[in-house]
Amino acid sequence: MTIETEEPALTVDELAARAGVTVRTVRFYSTRGLLPPPVIGPRRVGHYGPAHLARLALIEELQRQGMTLAAIERYLSRLPPGLDAHDLAVHRAVVASWAPDAVETMTREELQRRAGRALGEEEVTRLEAMDIVGGAEAGDGSYRVDCGLLPLGVRLLDVPLSQEVILAARTALTEHARAAAHELSRLLRDAVAERDAQDVKSLSAQMHPLVVQALLTTFQRSLREELRQWLTEPEADGSA
Hints:
Blueprint: H1 12-19, H2 23-31, E1 39-40, E2 46-47, H3 50-64, H4 69-77, H5 85-96, E3 103-106, H6 108-115, H7 121-129, E4 143-146, H8 150-156, H9 163-191, H10 197-239
Antiparallel strand pairs: 1-2, 3-4
């Protein structure tokens, strides 16, 4: 398994520290094929990049959802090749959505540790506008944080788009996601109408991650096609 990395500047010790795991864990994941090999630099020192860090975060989220190591291996093996840190962060946000409630209460220090960077007041305000961070609770200075969406929200802080555009995009995605979920729910409900409640619950648990992954993959392909057409339009116009 190979993957493109960006800025492979972290040593294995630095990667482990940033990810909150041990060096032994990083090496174990590497031997199991869960983590791509590092870029070998001078003096034969391996260096890791944002994609390695994002993959470790995804593995951690899969473990939080109760998946076994074998199940995590199967999940990762189905991912498209060449995913960058952003793609992996999106997958992690989707995986976190499997949980019934990913909201936690934490201090500003913990919020910044989870975000992996210092957050100014303006950045916290933007996260609040995205409904990822709730305002400080009365009296104790803590925040209510949607941990599943936090990594994606932090990356959006660096995207050169206005807050209005980001929120409009979120609204569009939410509306279409709800419509797709409603239709899929209807199809599954009709398919299992004759089964008992336990069978339905078991089937739902098996289908949830598969359906979510299928939706994400389909959306990514559709978005790439839309962007490809958009970027080639000026050339077509110029040749007319």
